Structure formats: C-alpha cells, structure tokens
Amino acid sequence: MLKPPYTKYKRLYVYYLDHRNLPPINDPDLIGIWIEDDTAILFFHQAKEAFIQALCQEIRASVVYQADLDYQDWEAGVKITSFSTKTLRVRPVWEISDASDEQDKDKIEIVLDPSVIFGSGFHATTWLCLETLELFLLESGMQINSVLDLGTGTGLLSIAAAKLGVNKVTALDNNPLAVDVAQANVERNHCADIVTVQQFDLMTGLPEMQETSYDLVITNLYKGLLINLFNDQGFWHSGIYMVSGFLPGMEPDLLAALPANKVQMLHRGKSEQWRLWLLQYEEV
Ligand SMILES: C[S@@+](CC[C@H](N)C(=O)[O-])C[C@H]1O[C@@H](n2cnc3c(N)ncnc32)[C@H](O)[C@@H]1O
Q: Least C-beta-crowded within 10 Å: which of 76, 88, 145, 258?
C-alpha cells in the first residue's frame, strides 16, 4: 500500500523468495508481501538488492526470481486512472478529485489504493463484474440486502455494493495483503459498518458464514476453484450468483459442475475474452 513518502506507484521491484517466514520489515519502500505456499513475494518501490541479500542471509533463503516493471504492467497493462460507470466514479488515491467535471458530478465516488492486489477496475473481469453488479442492483427489481464477495482483492466490488445500497457485505480473500488492502479501502470509503473483510482460503472449504444465506454471491475467481465451490453443497445456500474469471473454452466443465436442474442462467456477459454468468439457484 502507499505509505509516506510515496503518493503514487511508479516502478515495482519484485523479489520472489523460497521462504515464507520473514521477520517484520518496516521499510517505507516496501509496498507489500504475498505469501504463497512456501514462498514470499516482496514488492518494493525501489531496487533493494543489498537489503534482500542481507535478508536472505539472515533467514537462509534464496531469490528464486526477481523483476522490475512499470506499475501499470503488473495487472492489466494499462494506466490506472479514474473511470466511471453509470452511477459510480472510481478514483485511484493518487489522483486529485476533479470537481469541475460536470459529467461526473452526481456520481458516487469510490477512492481506491489498488496496491499490488487484483481489482483496480482495469482488468476485463473486474470491469464486467462491476458493471453487471451495478445494473443488477439498480435495475433487476430484486431486493439485494446481503452480498458475499469471494476473492475480494482490493474490495472494489464489495465497496460498490455498499455504495449502491446493500446493507451487509462479507468480503473474503486468502491473500493477507489483499485483506489489508481491502480493509484500508473499505475504511477510506467509510463503509466499514457495512463491509466485513476476512482472510479465508476457499481451497480449504467454505467459511461458516456461508451457511447463512446471502442474497448475492460474487465469485470472480478461476476455473479450478469455481469447480470446487460448485461441487460443494454448502456453496448453494444463496439466491443469485455472479460468477466470472473464466474463458469460453472453460464453460462446458463449469456448466457440468452446476447442480442439475437447480440453477437458472439469468444472464451471460462478456468482456474481451472473459465471460460472466448470473445464476439463480432454487432448491426444488
Ligand atoms: C481475479 S481476483 C478478483 C478480485 C476482485 N474480486 C475483482 O473482481 O477484481 C481473485 C481474487 O481471489 C483471491 N483468491 C484466489 N484464491 C483464493 C482462495 N483459495 N481463497 C480465497 N481467495 C482466493 C485472490 O487473492 C484474488 O484477490
């Protein structure tokens, strides 16, 4: 995340270590750390070769891979800037609000630090989910009071749901940095009373709160995890499911994993090569 003296991201210096147990690192150049299996991926604003070498010596780790890249190239390969949907205006923290923009003056603003977490709004799947979520909440006529956001990333979709009137949102992610980033974004947008962010690994099953019924479940994930969820009877407690994160060639396997005769396809969406389904589940 952005911490003083930084006010925006320029380049990312990435170090991939074969070790997950790191000592606390209090360095303003550190953006964040992803822990994946037995590895740690450290993201910095500056090149940190000497620091990483000393760290590796201290914890007996090795650098498996390192890279430096433009910030805009790490997720969608485009500049992250303000953008609008029908009723929302999403602005990265490093941009100043432009009150003179007549066209957007009545829009609801969401201010986001995307850090190095998926969900800036510039990947086709996030955009597709955001646009579909907004249209569904505003125009479906269905009463959506509660949302479960599985794999929340930056928290953008959860914050959007809260800003569009949903009064209870649970946002889960297995990546501790995503949880910190989403929590900071929720607080930045004054919706911590509506959105609860929690760390949870969906590969280990479903959280207890899944036993509760939500009006809408959002899953912008990946095929393997979606199939795991579809095959788990505990997943099917809710009404509407917005599913994304898959390509046309993956649809037959995903369709085959849906519970037979209990799911109705309400809508199919697409953006670039990515697909989205809006499903309605009914116990028969
Ligand atoms: C494609 S991103 C979607 C982020 C955001 N919802 C959006 O639409 O932009 C998928 C998210 O799911 C999270 N994720 C991946 N595997 C997961 C798992 N096993 N349990 C929980 N979250 C997971 C990732 O950390 C990532 O933030």
A: 145
